[in-house]
Design a protein that fits this description.
Elements (H helix, E strand, L loop, with lengths): L8 E6 L6 H12 L2 E3 L7 H8 L1 H25 L3 E5 L2 H14 L5 H15 L7 E6 L2 H11 L11 H19 L4 E5 L10 H16 L20 H9 L21 E5 L14 E3 L8 E3 L12 H16 L3 E3 L1 H4 L10 H13 L3 E4 L5 H12 L4 E6 L6 H5 L6 E6 L2 H14 L7
Parallel strand pairs: 1-3, 1-4, 2-3, 4-5, 6-9, 6-10, 10-11, 11-12
Antiparallel strand pairs: 7-8
Helix pairs in contact: 1-8, 2-3, 3-4, 3-5, 4-5, 4-7, 7-10, 9-10, 9-15, 10-15
């Protein structure tokens, strides 16, 4: 056990409902001598009310759960305890409160108030010593939740767990940036938390080592050898596949005389065709230090807002596949336009996206029939950048786009599934490594 005689140790167990947080917390507590602080101690009657009348109870229930969690951690810090805590307050704010706001069950005013309360609370807590992210396939999450026979869980809306999963994947990326070296990811289907499974002994040892040494481990080696195929586990597939691919040292094009740095890839894909029309007024809400700025969406944005979490996840999966091969990335939907939450005129959008293409070394495009993506591909080709086109076998991509692969510096990746896309794209980026010089 690490020697922290004069201070607390806070380890959060993060993950979706049914992901195995409590079972893992009890198993690790018994092996490390830490305390386990379960989540079920808050007033669970709120949950039945919440899922019966979500709009009425979403703010009050989420505020109660947040206050309970903050108090729980404050008490642990005050008593210099070493604890495993079921679910972090970051998740309460960035996953659950955000979920109710995004599905329209918490209004803008209430959400803004919640964020302000969260900001005040979170500043009273120390940063975590470790966050253990419990990953579990969607099919197993559903099975576990159904098997628990909790009354309030029977009231979950359709796709409730799936929507939370999308938000968790986005949050996990932010958490890694906010707490580098302190995210410990496990596959909770790879051990039996109720037995004397030696995997748990090794995990407990790893946890203590990480707390003591703060080395940067992103996950332990507990993943299945076969890649999952569910769409909601796409990021999981990508990460598992990238572990098999030797990292590249990519090289900058000599004729463009780029400075010594990682090359940058711009990711072009449909925006307006995937965006929902919007209405209302813009209202910015500054987030807490660990929250990215939260924007309460302007529904009058002429370009619309991409609220489809599955499409966001798809684009961010492509972006992570590119990044895993050694590139800096620009995903304009997120990095320029914040999924539509940043109000831009057509002139501004065109100017900023064009500038980003000019700053890049490679363009990866999922063009479909998007006018904007076609324009970005044309700019890249005219500027002499290598272009990789991502074309589904069943896609109705434009006639001219199918002919571009015959052009110099343009290659085409055809794919039949999301997993196939990640594998083929990664291999193609490997092949492009010879085009760059360091």
């Amino acid at each position: 056990m690490p020697d922290h005689p004069d201070q607390s140790v806070i380890v959060y167990l993060a993950g979706n409902n049914g992901s195995g947080k409590s079972s893992l917390g009890r198993a690790l507590a018994s092996r490390t001598g830490f305390q386990h602080l379960p989540e079920e101690r808050f007033e669970t009657s709120y949950l039945k009310d919440l899922f019966t009348q979500q709009r009425r109870w979403s703010f009050e229930a989420q505020a109660h759960i947040l206050a309970f969690k903050i108090t729980q951690v404050q008490n642990a810090v005050a008593s210099q305890a070493k604890v495993f805590v079921d679910r972090s307050p970051y998740e309460d704010a960035e996953i659950f409160a955000r979920y109710f706001y995004e599905i329209g069950k918490m209004d803008r005013r209430s959400y803004r108030t919640y964020v302000q309360i969260y900001r005040g609370f979170i500043r009273t807590l120390p940063e975590p010593d470790l966050i253990i992210y419990c990953r579990c396939p969607m099919s197993q999450l559903v099975k576990r939740v159904e098997g628990r026979n909790r009354d309030y869980e029977r009231l979950y809306p359709k796709h409730h767990l799936r929507h939370l999963n999308y938000l968790y994947e986005a949050w996990l990326g932010r958490a890694r940036r906010m707490f580098p070296g302190r995210i410990f990811e496990v596959d909770t289907t790879s051990y039996d938390a109720t037995s004397s499974d030696p995997v748990l002994d090794k995990m407990a040892s790893d946890v203590l080592y990480l707390i003591t040494n703060r080395h940067s481990f992103s996950q332990i080696s507990l993943f299945p050898t076969e890649l999952p195929t569910d769409m909601q586990q796409l990021l999981f597939e990508a990460q598992a596949f990238h572990n098999l691919v030797k990292p590249l040292r990519l090289k900058a094009q000599p004729e463009r005389k780029r400075p010594m740095r990682k090359p940058t890839a711009y990711i072009a894909a449909p925006f307006t065709g995937k965006a929902a029309p919007a209405s209302g007024s813009i209202l910015s809400v500054e987030g807490a230090p660990d929250l990215e700025t939260l924007f309460l969406v302007d529904r009058s944005a002429p370009h619309g807002v991409i609220g489809d979490l599955e499409y966001r996840l798809f684009l961010e999966t492509i972006e992570r596949a590119v990044a895993a091969c050694g590139y800096e990335t620009i995903l304009p939907h997120r990095d320029v336009n914040r999924w539509g939450e940043r109000l831009l005129t057509p002139q501004q959008a065109c100017a900023e996206c064009t500038e980003q293409v000019f700053k890049s070394d490679l363009l990866v495009a999922f063009p479909q029939s998007s006018f904007g993506a076609h324009y970005e591909v044309g700019v890249a080709i005219g500027y002499g950048l290598p272009v990789v086109l991502l074309i589904p076998e069943t896609d109705c991509t434009s006639f001219i786009m199918h002919g571009l692969a015959s052009q110099s510096h343009v290659s085409e990746v055809r794919f039949t599934s999301s997993t196939d896309l990640i594998q083929r794209l990664s291999l193609r980026l490997n092949a492009l490594a010879a085009s760059f010089r360091v």
